[in-house]
From TrEMBL:
Compositional bias of kind Basic residues: 127-137
Domain Restriction endonuclease type IV Mrr: 163-280
Native organism: Paucilactobacillus wasatchensis
InterPro entries reported for this sequence: Restrct_endonuc-II-like, Restrct_endonuc_IV_Mrr, tRNA_endonuc-like_dom_sf, Type_IV_Methyl-Rstrct_Enzyme
Protein name: Mrr restriction system protein
Keywords, alphabetical: Hydrolase
Pfam families recorded: Mrr_cat
Keyword Hydrolase recorded: yes
Region span, Disordered: 117-140
Compositional bias (Basic and acidic residues): 117-126
GO molecular function, one term: restriction endodeoxyribonuclease activity
An individual GO BP term: DNA restriction-modification system
Amino acid sequence: MEKFENLSKIGQENVVMPRIIETLKRLGGRAGRNELMIEVVSNADDIPDEYAKSMRTSKNGNDYLPFQYTFNFAVKNLILAEFMIRPERSVLELTEKGRTFNLASFDAESDVRKISGPKWKENSERKQKKGKKKGSKAARNVKEFDNDDQVDEWRDQLAIALSQFTPAKFELFARLLIKNMGVTLDENIGMKLSGDGGLDGYGYLTTDDFRTARVAIQAKRWNGLVSSPEIDKFRGAMDKYNAEYGVFITTSDFTRDAIHASRVGTRVITLINGDKIADLVAKFKLHVQPVTTYVLDEYYEGSE
């Protein structure tokens, strides 16, 4: 089989589509879009995680994730072919067809594109007609048909801002994040700023039944993927301070081997990547303000 990175865009989408259905079944038939994409990449051996998680810079100087476009187009095709629906913003759910389909006989061309293709064309023509009335041209891109398919702009802004933090400021940010997760930070361990060669934070988590556990924190403001040796090194630091739990935070992401390494042994290490950082920033409202907006549905389209 040809390597995933050497396939055409359509060929890559065809590989991703059954992986999406398979992963969504494993997640109970319903999941958030970001969670689903992360799980697909983490568990699909035929999709290299280094390739899927690599960032590129556009001609305009903006960083983007090419695989995200592949994933979004695969999702859109599956929606148009009625394998899944979007019950609410950024949430995907399998239909009865998606839940019961035998993936052993899945063929992307006959099972999906034969159905989704005419709908892409119909929607494109409708958008072009609408664009001509407004004196503009509609283009097929990842944002064309659904506002729900758009990546939240504030997440991109957050990623850029964090990438520009100094190592010391990012460690402070990581401690703020952990503190809001319910961890009481130790005043001595891990409080030395970057370059200490040890932990970036240490604290104590008390559960509802009043049991207290020691938590070690590692924060990496990286552009590349965090590999398994970094996880092993962190586990060694956990041993030094007898930590029962570990939290590894990075602005980038983790390789598949790093994810597996985090789950080895009796002490699982919680991994927080750039996407999860954004989720937590939103949850705890860390220096962000929520904005409410509205999206018009199809009722307002057309003149009839």
